[in-house]
Structure formats: C-alpha cells, structure tokens
Automatic annotation (TrEMBL):
Belongs to the CheZ family. InterPro entries: Chemotax_Pase_CheZ, CheZ_family_phosphatases. This is Protein phosphatase CheZ. Its main location: cytoplasm.
Length: 209
C-alpha cells in the first residue's frame, strides 16, 4: 500500500491518465451492456462475504457444541464402562466360587441392579446428547444454500468478465477466441451447461492473458 508521501508524488498527468482509463472502461462496459449485470454482481459480493462469515460462525458454533457435548459425556461413559468391567469380573469369580452363600448372591444381585439402574440413566442422558448433536448439524441445509449462492455470484462475475474480454478483443485474435466455444458462458447454470474452467483458461490464453 502506498504511503501518503508516495501518493502525493503521483504526477497530475498520471492521475489524469488513470481517470481517463477508468472512464473509458466504464463507458465501454455501458456500451457493451455489461455494466448493469456487473454492477448487480458487485452489489451482491459484500452480502456474499457476510453470508460466508455467517456460515463460518455457524460451523464453528456447531463444532464447539459437539465437542463440548462429547467432552461432558466422556467421563460418565468411562465410569460406566469401568464399572461394568468390574461387575463382569466379580460375576465371573462368583460363578467359579465353591461357596456361594445366599448373602453373597443377594449382594451381587444388588450390585447388578444398581449398575443396570445407573446404566439406564446414562443411556437416557446419552440419548439427549445424541439429539443435541443431531440438532447442532441443522446449519448444513442453510449453509449449503448460502455456499451455492456465493458460487453463483462468483460464476456470474467470471462469466461477465470473460465476455467483456471476448467482446473487446482485437480483430486479429477474435477468430482464436471464437474457436473456443462461448456457448457455455451463456444461459442458466445447469450441470451440462456450466462454465468449464478449461474453456475459460483456453479462452483467456487466446486473448493474450
């Protein structure tokens, strides 16, 4: 970026030439009828940036919420897993014990009952967690629509700029430009008529860019 001193050093004739170029470009676009579409697209670009920022925020919020839910559930999950393993080992020992008294059996049954009760509570909580995780992904439909809209804006901007280059190309390279089909640069953007990047690259190369 130029400093104030550097900007002040720009000669008046240079400023006049820059202004003349800007005016010529503006008049050329208006003559070609491209200024209206380009102006509309340029008005949409700031809105597109805001939409992408909104998508970024929604994605970040959803990711943070999912991570928070998983982190909060993990300790209890580890506890239930560990307790279940201990109970399984205790049952295995009891099953091989030659002396299984009624008291020991009742105590083991109580432990099993307590574990099942806690496991049931845990599963209910996890069902709620899974529901919240699923709901945290509801931004995807909206973000998909926003991203498609932004892609459409970028595509139309590219189309208009390429067509301006085609319409203003010198005669000596017009034939080369026409050799690359420009039909794909017009009409609605459906899958079989979408702007092909290879075609754009070839066209720009033929125009000397």
């Amino acid at each position: 970026m130029s400093s104030p001193n550097e900007a002040a050093m720009i000669q008046p004739d240079t400023r006049a030439r820059l202004g003349s170029i800007a005016r010529e470009l503006h008049e050329g676009l208006r003559t070609l009828g491209a200024d209206t579409e380009l102006h509309r697209v340029m008005q949409e670009i700031p809105n597109a940036r805001e939409r992408l920022d909104h998508v970024s925020r929604m994605t970040e919020n959803a990711a943070n919420k999912v991570l928070s839910l998983v982190e909060s559930a993990k300790p209890e999950f580890d506890s239930v897993t560990s307790r279940g393993r201990e109970l399984s080992e205790a049952l295995a020992r009891l099953s091989t014990s030659p002396d299984i008294s009624v008291e020991r059996a009742r105590a083991m049954m109580k432990l099993c009952g307590d574990y099942l009760s806690k496991s049931s509570d845990f599963m209910e909580k996890q069902n709620s967690v899974l529901t919240q995780i699923m709901m945290a992904q509801d931004f995807q439909d909206l973000s998909g629509q926003v991203i498609k809209k932004v892609i459409d804006i970028i595509t139309r901007t590219e189309e208009q700029l390429v067509m301006v280059l085609v319409d203003t190309a010198p005669e000596k390279i017009e034939v080369k430009a026409e050799a690359g089909s420009t039909e794909d640069l017009q009409g609605p953007q459906v899958p079989d008529k979408a702007l092909k990047q290879d075609d754009v690259d070839d066209l720009l190369a033929s125009l000397g860019f």
